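We treat protein structure as text, and this decision shapes the records that our systems exchange. Below, we set out a record of this kind in full and without editing:

***
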Amino acid sequence: MGYLLYVAVGGLVGSVLRYLVNLAVMRVGALGGFPVATACVNILGCMAIGVASHLAANGGIPSPAARTFIFAGLLGGFTTFSAFANETGILFSDSAPSLGLLNILVNVGGGLSAVWIGRALASIFFE
């Protein structure tokens, strides 16, 4: 039960941070309809998971509880894109580029397809 609490608290903090970053970016202004706030959150999340991943791999985050809080909770609440990017980067750095490419295709292609299917199903059943 303890690790669930780390994930829950980290997720709460990450989600609030995502909302605050969105507000801050929206105050600066839009970029011709481009989702700037989401891009900023994803890029910041990727940078943060890069730092955390390096620290964890080199003993800088030794506690499993701290790793759970940071990776699954905080960064999972902030953006799951960071986890996808980190895992893809690890596949490429572990000399598994075919798995890295497959991960990109499955996540991006599957995600876009799932959005399209979800919208189609919603238009059939809820309109």
User: Anything to note?
Assistant: The chain has a mean pLDDT of 90. The longest helix spans residues 97-125.
